[in-house]
Predict the 3D structure of the following.
Amino acid sequence: MTEQEKESENGRTEEVPKKQYISNDDLYRRSSQFELWSFTQESLEAKKKQANEIGRRIAKQRFDEAYNKLKQENPTIFEIHKQELDANNLITLLSHEEETKFIHAYCQNIVQTADYFRMPTQVKLTAISLFKKFYLENSIMEYHPKNIMYTSVFLAAKSENYFITIESFISRLKDVKQEDILDLEFKILESLKFTLLVHHAFRPLYGFFLDFQAILLHPSPVMYDVSIDTLGSLYDRAKKWLNEYAILSDVAFLFTPPQIALAAMYAIDRRITERYLKEKFLDDHTVNLESIPEHNDDVKEEDKDNEALKASNESSNQREYCITLIRTIRKCIKLSKLDNPTPEESKEIGKRCKAALNPDKVIERRVKKLAAPTTTTTNTTTTTT
Amino acid sequence: MVILEDDRSQDMCPICKTDKYLSPNMNFLVNPECYHRICESCVDRIFSLGPAPCPYQNCGKILRKNKFKQQIFDDLAIEREIDIRKKVGAIYNKTEEDFEDLKEYNKYLETIEEIIFKLNNGEDREKTEAELYKYEQEHKLEILEKNIRESQKNADAHKYKEAMERLKQEKLKVEKQHELEDLEYQKQQQQELLDVLASSNSTASAQEIIKKQRANASKRATLRKEQLQQINSQLENQFNPIYQQKLLEQQLAASKVPFTPFQGDRDLHKQYSLLPIPTEIDKLMDIEHHISDSYNDPYLNKLAKSKEYLGAGWRLTTVYERALDEAFIGLGCIIDQEKRPQKVDAV
């Protein structure tokens, strides 16, 4: 989509402007968040796959090295228990879906950690964002999420101006050393391509809370049952919704912060939000927004386009804009509500992740187990199987 | 690199042990080969007969006299870096106008910085130097061309200055000549007047004759003034082409769109209209009753009354404006459409 089409879609100047004007949207298009860290669903998936691919390769290499080393050390056991020690059966690497689940689980840990340190929401959100971005470039089979998580929190605190010294940070955490965090800091920054500024959905949400007031209550109330109290509770619930769903899911990569904020409003109270959008973006308030199809069916879209063309150009542009916006919002809501992994699931993935990170231990244990029955009683074998 | 020594030894030439205290006029020179400080007289003494090794112990670099120069910066590390910069800059001499966009230019600057860093920090220096030499050989013509173009630009400015200077001198010359002519004319007139007075008989007409003479003189003066002006304007016209060109260039520059960081003017049309927000102190102190037509947020209402916040410059308007601005920045960017690969878009 070219700049000009975009402009006309916004329902503003139709002819070519003499001087080029930069709209707020264009400004957003220049941000690193849009340029580097915004994806379509497909490209996000591809990116995750790519990171997973690299992780698998590294884990495989690590495994092979450990395997060959142990094989040289005790060849007899490897000779006897060929089947049990078959290289292909010892560890199973993680798929990128499993990685996503595990990262999701760790994002919940970030929330807990940030709450434990009583950090502002802003820090929490940035920490999650940094953490997620890191794992778009790297795999959990290369870096275990635990230390990356703490480093993300520490880094986010610094970048969001909520400074905490490394000493007091680690003193309140269990089994984390100062070097663990400081050594990873640069690695994370590098993966982030040194982009630390993150735009979150919370301030736009507050902006919409204000603009809802301006549009729906002033100069006189538009809806009989909407007062400042209703909007206040709508805002509070929308905040909760964001905390519950949006910040943990991948929507920040797929939508812009204002869209996510509107989605939160829309998810809480569809009626008020639709009314707001109508009042805000359409001159013709009679248009029925309910009739917008749920899915981006191509045929239906064409129908819509034809209909819109029949109407006057100005209002069709407005409608088009509004419809795209609502479609985007609905999609955002749908994608926010991804199922959380169960604790058992994440525990299982965590185990395999550890195995992928330290294959030598796994093989060693297996070797010991196989070597044990020859010297000791059969007791040990029954317990381990 | 020289290790910094104490102040006294800073002032003493380590070769001849001459001290600044005893000979305050002494100067120190360094050679970009090794940056060892040697006093002027030592340089004259040692290197006058041709290249010789550096007199510092364990240095042994062969130095030439013509390469010696005055040290400008106290810190030799900086002195050295600037020398390297000069050297690299003479080879990588493109300017911003040689590039299509800023990104390309920045990339170019980045490579320059990298080379300088490598040379300066001794990180595979030989390799970098070889590369630098290779680049110079390959781009010899380009570098020369660029140099010529740059010097032409400088020369243009120089020429203009010169022309203006000449114009001034020419004007002065003409004025001087005029003055001389005037002086001669006056003398002549006086002589004539005397002659006329001597030859005429009636004394009554003497007054009249003097009056006539004066009228003549003033007429001539105005005439001369006009002449002078004409000559001046002629002279100016003569130098005008350059002058006019300058003017034209200035006009062209003015008609261009001024630089804006996003290649265009900001669209100042806001996507929301701000409700009136109370600003007077009396209204703020009783804010609950003055926001019937404004935004209402109980939390901010409390802050708006706090004197600490007000005194520190905190304003309700900025808070509201920022939140509203952010609510509409990027609302219309549909990432799913815009980030889709071009092929899909075409279908």
Observations:
- Residues 202-336 of chain A form one domain.
